[in-house]
Please model this.
Amino acid sequence: MTTAALITLGIIIIAIVLFATEALPVDLVAILILIALVLTGVLTPQEGINGFSNKATITVAFMFVLSAALLKTGALQVLAHRLSKFFRYKFNVGMVLMMLMIAIISAFVNNTPVVAMFIPVVIQIAHTSGQDPAKMLIPLSFASIFGGMCTLIGTSTNILVSGIAEENGIEGLNMFSMTPVAVILMVIGVIYMSIIGIKLLPKNLASKTLRKSIDFNQYITEIELLENSNSVDKQIMDSELVTEFNMDIIEIKRRDEALSMPQGDFILKANDVLKVKCHPEKIKSLKDKAKSFAVSPLKIGEDDLMGKNAALVEMVITSSSEIHGKTLGELDFRRRYRAIPIAIKHRRDIMQNDLYNVRLSAGDVILAEVKSHYIKELKKKESEQDAPFVILSADYLTDFNKKQFIMVTALIFTMVGLAAFNVIDILTGSISAVTFLVLTKVLRMKDVYRAINWKIIFLLAGALSLGLAIDKTDLDIIIAELMLTQLSPYGIVAIISGLYITTSLLTEVMSNNASAALMAPIAIATATSLETSAIPFLITIMLAASATFMTPIGYQTNTMVYSAGQYRFKDFFRVGIILNICFWATASFFIPWYFDLI
Model:
């Protein structure tokens, strides 16, 4: 093994550790991989940045935009709500229909934004039909994974593997190369989840929302400012209520008027009655310090804090969110989102104190009071590809735009058809479709920039650099020969099985794209050693890198439903391990048979 190969192997091991421990964001790890490969001389600077201009990277970027355009029409939410009657009367029928619908959509639209949009819809369907959301959210995520495997554009993983194949001079992967095998797996997945998986899912975990789990009387209080108060004639942001006691002023009553969630520069006056949120200890400290405030408990009525101009919303932080790893204080949460945080749920712990200094993670839920008219703006942020959060409790529904829906779907299916018959490649088709949508004003250029998930783009660029380094140093040949030495005596089924299980296990602890980039060159080298087509081996990597069900961290849609359904880590393992084994066994025998390898 050469020095360059040893360096590459060392970088791979470090990368796997970083991905598995989540010590650093995955996109940052990808860039560090790129830098390390260039600085150690394994790759030239030009080779290092080739991932950014790679056909796969550009295609994924524009597919994100097409996904956003379809979601913007509001059609998918309307379709989902029409399923609610099936859940009310025939839950199993509704579950099958929902999973098939999500799978079909995810085959042509990137599954991450699809799941982000459907989480609040599914929860609302569960509540209106009297079902448990915990029984529906894991199936939602899994169904999106089933569908994403079925076409080249269903997931960025498939596009990435196809790009690596083209770089190695391998042709033959088209829009539906993986479809026959993937559809078999999808059918198995839907049947398993609707008959067995549904029984393994937990009960009554998500039926209690964060809002219901909190005793508001513990920290909501009215304070009347007396004439001698130090806060009179001061801006809210300069008041000692905020600067010293860290209180949030939710509402100000002045004479017969009430102002909900006033801005920080609002001037306080004597005899103002302030509705504040804080810990009871803060009220006690305030009473002990001065007599310039009249303090009394506030009785919460039927509206749960919601006045005429405000609403309570639950916001789940997504895996790609800018909020991940930051505090509400660092984000300037109140000013930026026009929202006042009331509580934060981290897994099963509910925090109500010192909220602006809590370090947030993907999957955490923020309960906040938001001005009613601003909920629509928050929903717009939620529909962006790199959405900072998913709103669970808002009733706002995107208006269905039939004209735009017909235009977007027609473009997508035209692009898919032309690409399937090799009239144009998928890159040209996706760029052309997005350009047409901008020219017809269905999308603005601002929408295009917002729709692209830059985290995935950087991850792809770094992963492609790693794949190039593995190929350049012949590390793929070394690993492939080692694998063949161990497995070839047992036949081609064992080799396919070994590639699948290795990729699958890597995906459970690191990014699906990273594991695909790591294993695709090895799959190509294995096919070369066997003097056979690389297509079945590459499809094995595609399927194994996407079909990850045992942990909530292997695939980002699993992470998204993790807290929304109030699941535990073991819930995924209990449901997913059998599904993983079923997919592994099926793929190990069906792929060699379908491609005439046995």
Observations:
- Strands lie at 220-225, 248-254, 257-260, 273-277, 293-297, 310-317, 339-346, 349-351, 365-371, 389-391.
